[in-house]
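Quick entry, no commentary yet.
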Amino acid sequence: MRLSTSSIHYMSLTIEEACERIAALGFEAIDIWSPHAGCPHLDDAKDRLGADGLKEVLERTKLKPYAYSVYRGGFPKYAEFIGAMGGGVAVRGNTRRRPPEEMVARMKEFVEALKPELELAEEHNVHLAIENHSGQLMNSLDSLKAFMDFADHPRLGIALAPYHLQRINASVEEAIAICGERLLFFYAWQAQPGTAQLPGIGPTDFTPWLAALKKVEYGWYVNPFMHGEPEPDAMTTALRTSREYLLERAQEV
């Protein structure tokens, strides 16, 4: 198991400081966020550091550039920059919820509408990962199955957020099985308040989820995650607990 975490956990710090914190905890890779909730990191890296400057920061901290969360701004805005970084996984949302009887047809339309972004992904060595999200078209197990039926492009896959699945009492293990080889990003994230969203702090046993990831031969990073991050020192303590917990549980599967 390889571990990454997200820069938004340190959104009050610069991208350099966030990388230093994440690296010091022992994470191997980073997911860099665009301006969701005001996170400055991806725009700052693109506009101030440039690809060469960000590469220097990552080389110095020994972090690998894994993912770029582009919920705000959209993938096309960042495609060239991500390509200059060597490519990676661009994580984005899906689309608004529709009545159940329209779900399959709307899913087909949604996947077809991704074609221009997938052409950019091919050009810039990027995989496009679509996140399931509460209240949107892709969140239920049936909608994940429908997405899989239409997602035939080799650079298209899923960023799976168990938080949103738990909110509808859907099986995370079954969702992982549905995604299979198209699972490109896994949020180690549970539906709890505060830092209890993180593995090892909230009540969820992550062992079955890790076992399900192993069964589908998931080869990307496991990314402990939360929203509403505390101040940096408390965030560091919480992430340290999560990392140690995940490493312990991984030995059991």
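second:
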Amino acid sequence: MYGYIRPDRGELRGREYELFRAEYCGLCQTLRERYGPAARFVVNYDLTFLAMVLSHEKPISRPLRCPVHPLRKRYIVRTDPALETAADQSVILTWWKLSDTADDANAAEAAAALAARTAMLGAYRKAAAARPAFDANTRKCLAELRHIEITNDPSLDKAADCFARILAEAASDARNEGERRILRELFYHVGRSVYILDAVDDLAGDVENDSYNPLRHRLRPGENSLREDEKDALRATLNLSQRSAAAALSLRSEDLWQPILENIITVGLPEVTRLVFEGKWNKRNRRNEIPPQGADET
């Protein structure tokens, strides 16, 4: 995925942040156990969010030492079945993203993606067997998105919908139909936000590389950035999706994860939106977290 779905650490209580980190590290550990050490490289904040939403367990963490932090043990959630779901879906999403890159990127990037995809073949087959519905839906939605790209369709809504339906399928692991409806709405609008943010973030590069981006149709000849009126329109549609996600989240059963999830949707995602529109996200994305509000952003 893309790393846009993350909490604002400055607005989290200390215990909440430690719990989020423990779930993130738990996903990393689960990927290693299910798919081998190399699978740790696909761990991301987006699927950590998914694991927390799907979790029905009281998280129990224990300190473990890992290769990334060999000198100090980290608390890691080890008793959350939702981590297995998130691990499987991480592998499936990574596989199809690599497939897309192998088809569309320049020669060097395509070769690297093809090599990585080949190395992941065994893990992908195992994950697809474990989550066949999620894999089939991902394949179907990406085929639709591929057609949109090939035909150079100018509709942002069509493209964002295809991507949003991929994440919405994660709701199929909910416990009952009522919960599935709530989580499908939540995941759909988060996925839609992610696609639009990525389109804004990548626009200048896509213009330079002559790559598909539905926002290119909103540019005047010779431009590679959006006008303020276009930015305002996109902020409005993102605000609508983020409000819809927050409304769905408010219907989720209250548990220890809820304050962290509320932070991600109502503080973290709007702050990422601000950074993307101000052209500061690429710099921040190299770091592990969003800085507290008011921190230096130079």
